[in-house]
Design brief:
Oligomer: single chain
Strand order of the largest sheet: 3-2-1-5
Shape: elongated
Number of helices: 2
Helix content: 25-40%
Largest sheet: 4 strands, antiparallel
CATH superfamily: minor pseudopilin epsh domain
CATH class: Alpha Beta
Number of domains: 1
Radius of gyration: 31 Å
Structural class: alpha+beta
Distance between the termini: 101 Å
CATH topology: minor pseudopilin epsh fold
């Protein structure tokens, strides 16, 4: 059998040895360079944190008000379609098999932030009655990122929390005499900043509109 000799290959020819050696020595970062990079990243995070926090706060409020407006419109539409009362009510446990509409001012559960239920209200009394044939149409689970979502009086702008816990739409799709006002605030440091707040106003027939800040209806 013929033997074959394999010669080693010098990856750094003599004529380029100095240049090649320098390239091999410069394959990583020095400790100082790494420290500079970490410092820059830290500065960028510090600068971006307030903007990111504000984005989360606005997003939480926007989700809450959009869901509320959407569900009041849905309740109104279902009442007209079915020709019977449909109610949206605040609930401390909206995901329960047999939900119970909230009572009182709801301070302990941040008001409507605890969630709500839309249901066919057979007797139109604004309370869910499973034995009476009421049926759930839609459920809003508890909302996160909110300091509060309270039903309040018409004036002053930050008036006391009311006991408004439901809106009943009759078979014509109207909520006669059920004007209402709600204030929504995000949690955290933005809770006391009026620019993050939103006001929901319901007119005499149950239509809801959105206002920026803590506004009068």
């Amino acid at each position: 059998m013929r033997k074959v000799r394999i010669h080693s290959i010098d990856i750094c020819p003599t004529s380029l040895e100095l240049s090649c050696s320098r390239n091999l020595d410069q394959r990583g970062f020095s400790l100082i360079e790494l420290m500079v990079v970490v410092a820059i990243i830290g500065i960028l995070i510090t600068l971006a944190a307030p903007s990111f926090s504000a984005l989360i706060s606005r997003s939480s409020v926007t989700k809450a008000v959009n869901n509320f407006i959407s569900d009041t419109r849905y309740a109104r539409g279902e009442a007209m379609r079915r020709g019977k009362s449909v109610t949206i009510c605040r609930s401390n446990n909206p995901v329960a098999a047999i939900p119970v509409c909230g009572a009182g001012d709801g301070l302990a559960v941040l008001g409507w932030a605890s969630g709500w239920v839309v249901f066919v209200d057979e007797n139109g009394n604004g309370a869910f009655n499973n034995a009476g044939g009421d049926s759930v149409l839609r459920v809003q689970e508890p909302l996160t990122g909110l300091a509060d979502f309270f039903a309040v009086g018409a004036a002053p702008l930050t008036s006391a929390v009311s006991t408004r816990n439901n809106v009943v739409y009759d078979g014509t799709g109207r909520a006669i005499g059920q004007q209402g006002r709600w204030l929504v605030h995000p949690s955290g440091t933005a809770a006391t900043d009026p620019s993050f707040a939103r006001t929901l106003c319901m007119n005499s027939v149950g239509r809801v509109r959105l206002l920026t800040g803590e506004a009068a209806c």
